[in-house]
């Protein structure tokens, strides 16, 4: 088994490709929740709840994990020569003056 075929512990512990949705979705929901609580607190002129700073720290950390994981996955794909999948371009019709005349 070559070194490229071996699954490292980091790859097994952090599944997913290009950052992983497992950190992006909870981080985005938590971050938007903190923004919502901030707006509510500003409108109601009340103090922010005591756990908001911990939630914000966790969300920013998860977004950082998503970014680092995506960067490492993109670098690994570039090192392995894996192409980025592109959609097939639509077929192009030739211009009328480029169509050969029909054969008799």
TrEMBL record:
<keyword id="KW-0472">Membrane</keyword>
<feature type="transmembrane region" description="Helical">
    <location>
        <begin position="20"/>
        <end position="40"/>
    </location>
</feature>
<keyword id="KW-1133">Transmembrane helix</keyword>
<keyword id="KW-0614">Plasmid</keyword>
<protein>
    <submittedName>
        <fullName>Uncharacterized protein</fullName>
    </submittedName>
</protein>
<feature type="region of interest" description="Disordered">
    <location>
        <begin position="78"/>
        <end position="104"/>
    </location>
</feature>
<keyword id="KW-0812">Transmembrane</keyword>
<feature type="compositionally biased region" description="Pro residues">
    <location>
        <begin position="86"/>
        <end position="104"/>
    </location>
</feature>
